[in-house]
Amino acid sequence: MKEQLEKIYANATEDLTKVSTIAELEEVRGKYLSRKGEFNEIKKNLKNLSDEDKRVVGALANEITQKLENALKAKHEEFYKKELNEKLMKERIDITLPGKYTPQGRVHLLTSTTNEIVSIFQSLGFSVVPQEHSPEVETEYYNFDMLNVPKDHPARDVQDTFYTELASNVVLRSQTSGAQIHAMEGKNPPIRVISPGRVYRNENINARKNNFFHQIEGLYVDKDITFGDLKGVLNEFIRIYFGSSRPTRFRNSFFPFTEPSAEVDVQCIMCEGKGCRTCSGTGWLEVLGCGMVDPNVLKGVGIDPDVYSGFAFGMGVERLAMLKYAVDDIRLFFNNDERFLKQF
Ligand code: DAH
What we know:
The chain is rod-shaped, with a radius of gyration of 44 Å. Strand 6 (about 250-255) and strand 7 (about 260-265) form a beta hairpin. It is α+β, with helices and mostly antiparallel strands. The chain has helices spanning about 1-20, 20-35, 40-45, 50-90, 110-125, 140-145, 180-185, 225-240, 295-300, 315-325, 340; strands at about 125-130, 135-140, 170, 190-200, 210-220, 250-255, 260-265, 285-295, 310-315. It has 2 domains: about 1-90; about 110-340, BirA Bifunctional Protein, domain 2. The structure holds 3,4-dihydroxyphenylalanine (DAH). 3,4-dihydroxyphenylalanine binds near residues 289, 290 and 291. The site of 3,4-dihydroxyphenylalanine has 12 residues, from strand 7, strand 8 and strand 9.
């Protein structure tokens, strides 16, 4: 039996020299050390020996299985380290590789410009009218009639205004000024509001004109409002928006809903006033219309023009953005060319 044990041990040791993976190692363990393994078969026969032999052979069996266990353990550790290293090498991360590009959205220049203008007027005490008081699809009543625009005014012409097929008097609004009427209807002064939004005009599209664009309407009605208040507010707005160094001018003008009326020009940023394609050679770009609210408009919404007065203005958002960021073509705002949009 002693020889048998030594023979098995020799075989096991021989087998161990041939294994090279943990899986093969486990096969060897199964073959010799499991319940059905070769050593157990021998141990089962111990009971047939004399007490003296039982003790000697039993001790030897224990000693040999222990040695084999140790050898298996050592091999297991060696293979485990080897296999782990191979796995780590295979899964190695090259931290010098460039990362995956995730495109990031951003706020459109017209939206950020609108937000900036709105927050300047908010800081001057104006609040934004609710969206339902500023519809893009509007009746002639709000877009023209209540703004004192005569029935035969050329702005009403289909060459200038888009009429819808909803009804003969329903238009895509050509100006945000209708929001003034919505803001005043059924309310008592003081009223101090602004209303940003999109407007539509039947234009031939070129570098300065698009068939839709954006305006911000403003209205302040209270007792004792004067043209001085109008100039003060607009000059303050321009100073904050452009900084104090940009030359501007108030110019006489006419609008049916204001009397007197004016327009504000800002010096062209592209040519610094020398005259270029963007400013049609004048050196100036008009950015807004304004004036004292016509008494007829106040009367129309039930506000007594002998008690109250007010000023109003409407500014072009694209123009203001073009003049601040030197954008020389209005179509750039709407072409969705990332090379342009990414710059802001
Ligand atoms: N609605 C005018 C336009 O689109 C701009 C304007 C001029 C608005 C004078 C006003 C104003 O509120 O008082 O050209």
